[in-house]
């Protein structure tokens, strides 16, 4: 079962197959892991149903986030054991001069408490990881991410975090445009909308990325030769 089965009609899935979409891009030899926006403002400080979680942080995705956090931790553990790079694109607190259109579109983001911007402890960065503050959905827009990846000689991005329909998707599309191979572990990304999560995974799978489970991703990565960061 794919995450979008039962949501994307079977006939529409067949239409994509008939048109030749959804081929596998495969892994390269030098993967990098992106952990996007896994901060307490998107998870809450503990697993809670959505209606409870948004009382703590109105931007929380609720308990659905915590299953993904556990899978991201598994991926991070593998990357650290192999000496592969981990990068953390994350929303930085916005000052009045750079709120842009977001202040009007999602005003709740402007009032998140400082605790909300902390990284979730289970996947928090360690020495040697790369921190990338960003102001917009794509991890590439207005950041030195592409420059870092070129310096690391990365050829494959494993994209995790949130939201599937927002910052994950925006980053995946840009990564594809830069000619990186892209993998999205479907259970290591999360969204406040089950339907939006599924539809965007389907669309990314058809056009921009290989979508697989964390178990499948770890198995594929484990078959690669271990390399150290340059």
Can you tell me about this structure?
The chain is of the alpha/beta class. The protein has a single domain, classed as Rossmann fold, CATH 3.40.50.850. It contains nine helices and seven strands. Helix 5 links the parallel strand 2 and strand 3. Helix 7 packs parallel to helix 8. The radius of gyration is 17 Å and the shape is globular. The mean pLDDT is 93.
Topology:
Layout: H1 10-19, E1 31-36, H2 40-43, H3 50-56, H4 64-82, E2 86-91, H5 102-105, E3 130-134, H6 145-152, E4 156-162, H7 164-177, E5 181-185, E6 189-190, H8 194-207, E7 210-212, H9 214-222
Parallel strand pairs: 1-2, 1-4, 2-3, 4-5, 4-6, 5-7
Helix pairs in contact: 7-8
Structural class: alpha/beta
Strand coverage percent = 5-15%
Mean pLDDT over all positions: 93
- Estimate percent helicity: 25-40%
Which term fits the overall shape?
globular
What is the ordering of alpha helices and beta strands? HEHHHEHEHEHEEHEH
The number of domains is 1
Regions with pLDDT < 50 over 5+ consecutive residues? Answer: none
Q: What's the level 1 CATH class?
A: Alpha Beta
Largest sheet: 7 strands, parallel
- Helix run count: 9
What keyword list fits this structure?
single chain, alpha/beta, 230 residues
Give a short overview.
This protein has nine helices and seven strands; from the N terminus they run H-E-H-H-H-E-H-E-H-E-H-E-E-H-E-H.
